[in-house]
Every structure is written in structure tokens, then in C-alpha cells.
Design brief:
The chain has five helices and no strands. With 117 residues, the chain is mostly helical. The protein has one domain. The radius of gyration is 15 Å and the shape is globular.
């Protein structure tokens, strides 16, 4: 089954709430009392076309607004990982190499080598 951005968000929300569907529904991160999560409006698996932008915003939050860290993200088990650039991987020909674990490791190795020089 193909994972859509909405399904990826739903999976991330379930993971964040310990797999409890009721906890996803009652998520307090709506910005009213706690910090707002960019995924909150889409947590129930329903939403608009803004899902990719929300995934990108979440990844920026997760990586402390460091765009390079998003590119180098080693958390391939994250349901949002393949959408971390805010684009559909199938529609962006420049993404396939970095969308593999090997691509991330190779990029990390190159960047670490540059930092030592």
C-alpha cells in the first residue's frame, strides 16, 4: 500500500501518542495551551493540500530550523522521512538519491570530511 502524506502524518501522530487512538484525538498541541504542532490539523488523517508544507514545518521544528539537518536526517524509520523536503518524492527528480539510507550516509560522510579540512 502506498503511503500518502496524510497517512504519514497519521502514523507520526500515532507514534507520538504511544499508539493510542484516543490520545491522537485529544492531542493538546493545538497552540491554545501548549506549543502548536504543525501536524495537529491533520492528526486524524483528514486535511487539505497543505500537508506537505506541514510536514516540512514539523521537520524544521525537529531539526531546530537547520535545513542541512533535514537533508542529513538519519531517522529513516520516521513516517515523515520521505516527505521531509515538503515534496512528493515521485515528482522531484533530484530527490531519489538522498531519499535512501545509503544516500544520507554518503552525504553525511562527505560533509564530515569537508568539516575536517
Amino acid at each position: 500500500m502506498k503511503k500518502t502524506p496524510l497517512k504519514a502524518i497519521r502514523a507520526k501522530c500515532l507514534d507520538c501518542s504511544g499508539g493510542e487512538y484516543k490520545e491522537v484525538s485529544a492531542c493538546p498541541f493545538d497552540g491554545k495551551q501548549d506549543e502548536e504542532c504543525p501536524l495537529h490539523p491533520f492528526r486524524m488523517g483528514k486535511g487539505s493540500r497543505a500537508t506537505l508544507k506541514s510536514i516540512r514545518a514539523y521537520c524544521l521544528w525537529c531539526c531546530n530550523s537547520q535545513k542541512l539537518e533535514i537533508k542529513l536526517c538519519p531517522t529513516v524509520g520516521c513516517s515523515l522521512w520521505e516527505y521531509r523536503f515538503g515534496k512528493r518524492p515521485q515528482k522531484c527528480p533530484s530527490l531519489p538519491k538522498i531519499l535512501t539510507t545509503e544516500g544520507v550516509l554518503e552525504t553525511n560522510t562527505v560533509i564530515q570530511g569537508i568539516g575536517r579540512g
